[in-house]
Amino acid sequence: MVTDSFLNHIEQLRFEINEKLQSFPLDSEPKYIYDPIKYIMDGKGKRLRPILVNLVGTVYGASKEDLLNAGLAVELLHNFTLVHDDIMDQDNLRHGKATVHKKWDESTAILAGDGIYAIAQILITKVKTNPLKAVEAFNKATLYVCEGQAYDKEFEHNHGIVLDQYLTMIKKKTGWMIGFSAELGGILGDQPASVINELQSYGLNLGIAFQIQDDILEIFSDAKSMGKSLGSDLIAGKQTILTVLARQNDEIGWKQIWDETKNRDIQVTIEKLREYFDENGILKSAKNMAKKYTEAAKNNLQIIPKEKRAQLEQLTEFVWKRKK
Amino acid sequence: MVTDSFLNHIEQLRFEINEKLQSFPLDSEPKYIYDPIKYIMDGKGKRLRPILVNLVGTVYGASKEDLLNAGLAVELLHNFTLVHDDIMDQDNLRHGKATVHKKWDESTAILAGDGIYAIAQILITKVKTNPLKAVEAFNKATLYVCEGQAYDKEFEHNHGIVLDQYLTMIKKKTGWMIGFSAELGGILGDQPASVINELQSYGLNLGIAFQIQDDILEIFSDAKSMGKSLGSDLIAGKQTILTVLARQNDEIGWKQIWDETKNRDIQVTIEKLREYFDENGILKSAKNMAKKYTEAAKNNLQIIPKEKRAQLEQLTEFVWKRKK
After folding, report:
1. Model-level pTM?
2. What is the pLDDT of residue B266?
């Protein structure tokens, strides 16, 4: 059960992270790069990754300073990938605000993303406990998230992509960095490899569940909660859990629906797709899959001493139940 | 004097670096990111930065393995900035080959650049001597090169930019990374801060001289040697040592020439500008300035024991005399 006290706790963590990002010491010149970087640091976000670093690290008594530097590093790494992905995907809205390439231009967004990444690197190098291990895991996560985005682009408009390929993509694009966030908590808490690996698996499973949920919410939530237009991934020809399962379930029927929605009003399209996914059991299958990964994540948590597990159990439940 | 034996030595180093880059172990999937990364690693380049790491590190007995990893890391960091800069500046040719965004598209080039940077980070983290110092200096250099590129973009088409601003820009955009390459040789040779700082100054001065030379060659060399079209920076409204000095020398006269060259055939423009820079002493002032920084670099080299200084003295001379 997700308690009010847990919700208050992560709200407090989110508040602290936002405050640190907003007051982050940055030069004012050159404005060409620091104005957009400030804009990004002022943005909203769930802050799931630094919250995860904090909750796992706290279990193992990691230092507050390390958790802060590492948490900010992970959040900025995530933001760097978002800024560049938004250019590649031509997304104009992120967390309810214009994306950097939309507010400025693509050159500015490329460079601001690069700068944010360099700052993230500077922060991760500052951790005092196992800095080299932390930096190595950080670099591996970065390369994997690039590979995941590469699959995402490669799979666009490809109607031959099957579930396994989709899972490979989201493991790298979303799962690995959430896995890394949990792993980092263990590294900063100076845990042995066996514990760190299990924490990594926990985060990976949680991340896969998170992405599947994200794909569902992109169609079944509302634009206001999501802070971006609904259905934009689908329209961009992205592979999502819903399209992959629909294709696997009834290729011909799905192609028919998909072709019918072309050039329709987006709201009509979304209504029609919701109906199709619901009536054909696709939504249910997708939810079951998210549940399966959530359960696997919960099992991984058994590596943590029972009396210290509650917060992360609640986080897992919280991610599973989220509406945005 | 630059001896044949020195030229053979750096040719050998260049050969080894190219070989390591061409045979660098990379996954084959996803092709979306690894095909362009292989293409970049196959590219040509002067390899000045890894050569510098090698020559400085060898003076101080750094390990061959560290010098290799660090040299590749620095070269890939440089390549990452080139791939992204080429998008921002819409340059279509680099070292005689189509740039990544031209051969593929901008999304591919953004992501391939990010991937190359992640690989560079993985490599620098592998050094055995003072890895954290090396990584810290690497990150600082990355942020500075981003700041330099930001100034470069900010100053485009701005006819109010003066020499000091130009120098701030090239120090960060070009100078710092060459300074960092020399510094890295000292870090890997486990030298004290006083030596490392002087090595950094050496590279910084060399880098500033290098960029001034580059600005001159962009107008006074030939396209074949440069592997890119002449005058492209000028046409893109970039600040170069020649335009900044011409403006400082005779603002009205320079504006007249500049306006006259607009919309002219590029070959005619270049001829006309060469004539102007030559006849008005601008070329001479620019060369003197490059010489001044070259001399400063040579002075910095006195930190190195006399009997071990010859190779770097020749490198300094070589950069000063280069024709491409």
Report:
1. 0.96
2. 83
Cβ(A231)–Cβ(A210) under 8 Å? no
Mean local confidence (pLDDT), B14-31: 96
Q: Across the interface, which of A32, A107, A150 has its CB nearest the CB of B32?
A: A150
Q: How far is CA B86 from CA A136, A143, B151, B153, in A?
A: 29, 22, 15, 12
- pLDDT higher than 90, residue A195: yes
Read out DSSP for B258-290?
A: HHHHTTS-HHHHHHHHHHHHHHTTHHHHHHHHH
In terms of Cα–Cα distance, which of A153, A214, A185 is closest to A303? A185
Both tokens assigned to A96: 């309810």
Helix (H) / strand (E) element for B194: namely: helix B193-220
Q: Which of A69, A76, A72, A80 is nearest to A130 (CA)?
A: A69
Between chains, do A140 and B119 touch, taking CB under 8 Å as contact? no
Which residues of chain B are within 8 Å of residue A142 when distances are taken between CB atoms? Answer: 114, 118, 121
Q: Which residues of A touch B (CB under 8 A)?
A: 27, 30-34, 84, 87-88, 106-108, 110-111, 113-115, 117-119, 121-122, 125, 131-132, 135-136, 139-140, 142-143, 146-147, 149-151, 153-154
Cα-based torsion angle of the residue sequence A289, A294, A299, A300 in order, rounded to the nearest 10 degrees: 110
pLDDT (tens digit per residue) in A209-251: 999 999 999 999 877 776 667 778 888 889 999 999 999 999 9
Go through chain A and tell me how many residues it has: 324
C-alpha A117/C-alpha B143 separation (Å) is 9
pLDDT digits (tens, 9 = 90+) for B186-237: 999 999 999 999 999 999 999 999 999 999 999 998 777 666 677 778 888 8
Q: How far from B271 is each of B219, B220, B275, CA to CA, in Å?
A: 9, 9, 6
Helices H / strands E in chain A, number of each: 17, 2
User: Residue A13 has which token pair?
Assistant: 């963590």
What is each CA distance from A87 to A108, A164, B10, in whole angstroms? 11, 27, 40
Question: Model confidence over B67-124: pLDDT tens digits?
Answer: 999 999 999 999 999 999 999 999 998 888 999 999 999 999 999 999 999 999 999 9
Which pLDDT belongs to residue A175? 98
Angular region, A264: left φ>0, alpha ψ -120 to 50, beta rest: beta
Percent of the residues in chain A that have a pLDDT greater than 70, as a whole number:
98
Q: Are B197 and B267 in contact (CB under 8 A)?
A: no
Strands (E), chain B: 93-94, 97-98
Q: Domains of chain B, with CATH numbers? A: 4-321 (1.10.600.10)
The mean per-residue pLDDT over the stretch B3-23 comes to 96
